[in-house]
Each structure stands twice: as structure tokens, then as C-alpha cells.
Amino acid sequence: MGSMFETLMKNEEDRVKEREELKKIEDEQRSVVRTDLMTEKKPQCIKALGVELYERIYNYLKNAKLGNKDSAIIQKDIFNMVGNDKDKMNMVFFIDQLVDKESIGI
Asked: CB count, 10 Å around CB of 106?
């Protein structure tokens, strides 16, 4: 029969495994929620911006991030595309999240 120490260590190992499994499940659930939210937001962005502007902004952000373009330049260029329209700027925020999500494979 094992010692009390061995029993305690076994229990701790089990708890560590349980925490790791729970974290993995939580991460997977967060990913699904983020994907669902972005899937819902993409059509809203297209509706608000129009297909042409949506694609222009999407492609610009994707290329700018791949090229590690300076954020101040990105902001200036985006502002030139959408102007001072707060609704359109909100849509840009979602497009930016979509580009980020796709680049890290969530």
C-alpha cells in the first residue's frame, strides 16, 4: 500500500489534469463564440459598408498586418477610406478583428 504522500501526489496530479482539461474546453468554447460573433458581424459590415468598401478595407488591413505597417499610417489610411463616419469606423473595428482571427487561425 502506498504512503500518504504518494496518495496526496496522485490526487494533485489528477487535479492538475482536470484543470488542464477544463482550460482546453473553455478555450475551445471561447473560440466557437468568437467565430460565431465574427460570422455574424461580417454580413453586417458588408451591409453597412457595401461590398466594394468592405473588400478594400479587409484587403488593406490584411496586407498592412502582413507587412507590419505602422499603426499610425494604418489609422490615417483607414480614416481616408471611411471619413468621420462613426458607424463605418465601428465596422472597421470588426473587420480588423476578423483579419486578426484569420491570421491566428481561431
From this structure: 14
Domain extent, residue 49, equals 4-104
88 neighbors 48 (Cβ within 8 angstroms)? yes
Which amino acid, residue 3?
Answer: S
38-78 per-position pLDDT tens digit:
667 889 899 999 999 999 999 999 999 888 889 899 999 99
Contact (Cβ atoms closer than 8 angstroms) between residue 100 and residue 38: no
Domain count, the chain: 1
Is residue 52 within 8 Å of 92, Cβ to Cβ?
Answer: no
CA distances (Å), origin 63, targets 1, 60, 83: 63, 5, 21
pTM: 0.63
Helices and strands in the chain, H and E counts:
4, 0
